[in-house]
Structure formats: C-alpha cells, structure tokens
C-alpha cells in the first residue's frame, strides 16, 4: 500500500528517472507530473498518473505529500523552489555550489512560514559525496581530502563546445587521472594541480567545411573550461556521436587520507565511489529516498529547509529501526 | 577551549587510540582513564589526565560529559555498558552482531531511565559499514550488496590457532579475493560462496619439536574458522612474527550493485572502502566523533540508546550547519 503520494515537476531526464525510481519503492505512489508544456503533448506512459500544467499545482495541495522538483539549477530551481516550497514539501537537486547558502536561506524561510519541509541539494554531488566529505573529515580531522569526478559527461563543458562556430554537436567526458588517484590511495597526500587530477575528452560533430584545427585550438585554449587541462579532441560523424556517446554515465571518488596515533604514524584511507551507467536515474533514486525522509520529518513537525547533513539515515528507508539494527548494523 | 569532557574505560589498544584521537579534536578534553588494574601500574603519559579505579567512576558523574567504553564485546561491554549507561552518556563499539538487538534494548532502557544517551555499536563494522549498507540499500532498492573484509588481522582466528597444541603464537590475516571484488564492481551480481570471497593467511610460531604437518592440517580442517576457506599456513620464527606481523592493519569494502530504469537496464555501483594502518586507532577516531554527537543529543534531551542510523551527520562535527553547507555541500 502506498503511504506517500508524490508529484514530479519537470519531465526531462531527471523527472523520468524519478518516475522509474518511484516504481521500485512500494510505499510511494506517483500522483501527477507537472509540466510547463501543453499537457496533451506530454505522454508519461503510466496509467493513473495525471499530467497537469504547473499553473494548476495549487489544486493538488491536499493530494500530494512531497513534490520532487526536477528542473535545472541555473534557471528553473531558483524560481520553482520557493514557489513550490510555499505549497508542498519538496525535494530538489540544486547544485550551484556557490549559491547554496543563499538558496538555503530562501527555501528555509518560505518552507517554515508555510509549515512545509524542503530537502535541498540532494543527489550525489551535492549529496552523497558531501555526506562522505563530512563524515570522513569528522572521523579523521588530521588529513587531506580529494574529490575526483568521472568518467562522465559534463553538460556544462559539452554546451561550451557547442557554442563554438562550426560545431554542430559535442559531448565532453571528464576523466579522473588514475595515477593521481593511486597516489592518494597510497596515502602520499600529494598536492595536485587541476591538470593532474582530471583530463577532458571531447567528441565533436562539425558543420560541413568547418576548420578542424581552428576548432580544436579554440577548445584547448578556452579559459576556465579547458585551458587548465590536458584536453583531447576527436571529430566524429553525427551517427557515431548518437550511437556511442548518447548515454549519460558518470561517477567519481571522494577519498580522505588521514593520520592517527600519538605521532600521526598511521595512515587511514576512507574512500567512497560511484560508477553510474545513468547519472539522471541515480540522482533520481537519491531524490526518491529523501522524499520518504522529508515526508516523515514533516509529519513530526520538523519544518524548514534540510540538507543531507540534517537527516538521520534511518529516515531514508521504510524499514523499522528494530529491523535496521537486526539486519544492517 | 574544550567544551566536552570525556573519560576512557579500559586502557588497551582501543583506549590508547581514543586518547590519541581526543588530542586531534580541540573541543574535547580527556579527564580520566578508568581501569580495573591497580591505578599505580597504569601510566597514561599525559599531564592532567587522572587514572582512576573503575569502582570510583561514580565520583566523576559531574566531571565527565561522555564516557568512552573501550572494553571487548565478549565479556567487558555486556557488564560495563549497562553499568556506565546508568551514570554517564556513553559510546561503545559493541560488535557481536547477533546480540545487538538485545544489547540495544538493555542499554536503551537503562540510559532512558537515567536521562542519559548511549551510542552503541560505533566503529566501522558495525558503524561506517552499516551506514553505507543502509544508505546504498535505500537509494538502490533493486540490487545486491556485498561486504568484503581485509586485508586485516582477525583476533578471533588468531586466537583459535593459538589454542592448538604445539603453537606458541599466531597471526591470521583475512584477505578479500580480488577476482570476486572485480566481478562485483563490474556489476555482474555474482553469487559468491564463502570460499570465493575471502582467503585466510596464517603466520605461526611453533614450540620446539612440534609437528608442522599436523598443525597445518588441524588449522585447515578447523570447522567454522578455516575449513570453508582456502587457507595458507606459514611457519615463522618468533622474531619475524614480532617484526613483520605485530601491526594491526585492516579494512574492507561495502559494495552495492543496483539496477535503475524502466527495464532495470542501467547498472549503478556504490562502493565504500577503508584501508587502515591501525584498526584500533581508526575505531577510536569514530568513537570520538560520536562522543561529540552524543553530548549534543543529550543536551537536547534526546536520551536512550542510539545507533549510527539515528544520528544526523551534522552532529559529528563542531562546525556550524551554515559552514557545513558552505564548505562541504
């Protein structure tokens, strides 16, 4: 029996991932998909799930326990977050790191005023990676921490290439450098430059007659995005890009190397890693677990904005605490 | 300035690890070491730290915020836990998995009755590994989970060898099998037998004239401990054992391999691993972080027994929530 009724705002890759993830959790039920597009153009392929215009969301206040906001951080969430937090409990994946404190304050105020609870910046980074950075730092205060991302597609870098004259389409992979990871794992505590941690591998489809050398040069010297990295550029046909580079894998590593003992003579390594076939589906799976937690928090009267640091792990599952102690401790 | 005053009960490897870990946390201060041994035979090598007989612990109720119980799970903690939970907030590493539910009930009742808070079964397994099993299972409900231990010294297995006639001393390493880990990491979701997951490597010093073949045979056929595993036996001199096998390394891997998507077509791997030079010092570092959390819980009036599933991560550090959001999210 489904105890927690949820809605999805935004039906892109992340929204579709949430729809699939909800099906794997029998205590959750998807009530509706809320979209800015004309509702008759959106087919969610699932019986019993309504497609609703976002403007009509307020009519669903009594029917939905938690709304999962699946828009992007650049322009969608700064507007959708506060708007929905005034009406519903929410979960979002706001990931513009520099703006998180400001977003938190805004969401916290609105959610609290309206007696709602909002989990912000949920996913894997921010999210599971943040939890591991925090936990490892608390356990090993004397130490050094490293985050590596990839191998995975970076939308921001792919978009930057697509804006170059003569480029039709592009996919950019961020690749962590194995030698650097090995040094960290061995407890060497290396100082690593940007270039030593990641390299960038680009697959590009060009317009007919465009100048390959000029495009490659423009990519490799692009400040902030590529100039600081070792970058490889591969020109491919549109068919090859579609066939071999349309998946959305990602992942990465959070490693803390710390020293313990009277003379810090013992090295201790804590490592958390992800290897994901589908970045949006994994992020969606994390959002869904936190939807459960946020519903419970709200039921208990804990309102306002919450992050992964504030929510005990036991809230993420529908198992009883007694079962958790028996089966997983 | 130290805000949290702690005590250590039991001054073995774990207790000494706690003493060293407290020094890495400026908001904690070690007040006393409580021992069953004659107090004048225990030298803690630290100014300002008292050595006290456990029988006098009740005199310190107003001077200590959290007592870290550093005894063993077989005979010490079942007695010490309830006794100290009646007087102090406590943190312990009770790790007899099968008896945790019963121990929890007992500790919860006594701590609650006395207005105290007790973190039980803290460390890495149970502890950090349990957290990762729970978190990964909540995020990827459709999947399979694996725990590998080692390479590390198993005290239980080393003791079992020492009980054999003709054996003077022994160290046993539990070693995870790389091929099995690789299969799991690749998302193959293998069914693994006991023998396929770990092997056992033994270093043994024998009495003069003892029969090597007989001892090796006795080890390799010992039910529950070795018979189910591939076991290698190495005979060494006492000097070599002392020189090369007296460290206490350990570690291991918790890996969940899950499937997401409408047709479970995408594989997602979550992995948490530890590589520890010193098992007791690392366990001690985890206990100390939870001492901080338990103090805060008690200040807030949250009494009774708690596990790693009940405590939000933000309680493990002395950073403010605003700083955590800014720096680590």
Largest interface pair: A-B, 69 and 69 residues
Number of strands of chain A: 14
Strand content of chain A: 25-35%
Kindly state the percentage of residues in helix of chain A.
Answer: 25-40%
Side by side, the strands of the main sheet of chain A go 3-2-1-4-5-6-14
Number of helices of chain A: 11
C-alpha-based Rg of chain A, rounded: 22 Å
Q: How far do the termini of chain A sit from each other?
A: 27 Å
Order of helices and strands of chain A: EHEEEHEHEHEEHEHHEHEHEEHEH
Structural class of chain A: alpha/beta
Mean pLDDT of chain A: 96
Shape of chain A: globular
Give the uncertain stretches of chain A in residue-range form: none
Q: Work out the oligomeric state of the chains in this entry.
A: homodimer
Largest sheet properties of chain A: 7 strands, parallel
Secondary structure layout:
The structure is a homodimer of 329-residue chains.
Chain A: E1 4-9, H1 13-23, E2 28-35, E3 50-53, E4 66-69, H2 77-85, E5 89-92, H3 100-113, E6 117-119, H4 128-139, E7 143-149, E8 152-153, H5 155-162, E9 167-176, H6 178-185, H7 194-197, E10 198-206, H8 212-220, E11 230-235, H9 238-244, E12 250-260, E13 266-276, H10 279-299, E14 304-306, H11 321-327
Parallel strand pairs in A: 1-2, 1-4, 2-3, 4-5, 5-6, 6-14, 10-11
Antiparallel strand pairs in A: 7-12, 8-9, 9-10, 12-13
Summarize the structure.
Two copies of one chain form a homodimer. With 329 residues, chain A is an alpha/beta fold.
Protein architecture, described:
Two copies of one chain form a homodimer. By secondary structure, chain A is of the alpha/beta class. Helices cover 33% and strands 27% of the residues of chain A. Chain A contains eleven helices and 14 strands. In chain A, the strands form three sheets. In chain A, strands 3-2-1-4-5-6-14 form a seven-stranded parallel sheet, sandwiched between helices. In chain A, α1 (13-23) crosses α10 and α2 (77-85) packs parallel to α3. The radius of gyration of chain A is 22 Å and the shape is globular. The model of chain A has no long low-confidence stretch (mean pLDDT 96). Chains A and B meet through α1, α3, α4, β12 and β13 of A and α1, α3, α4, β12 and β13 of B. β13 (266-276) of chain A pairs antiparallel with β13 of chain B, so a sheet runs across the interface.
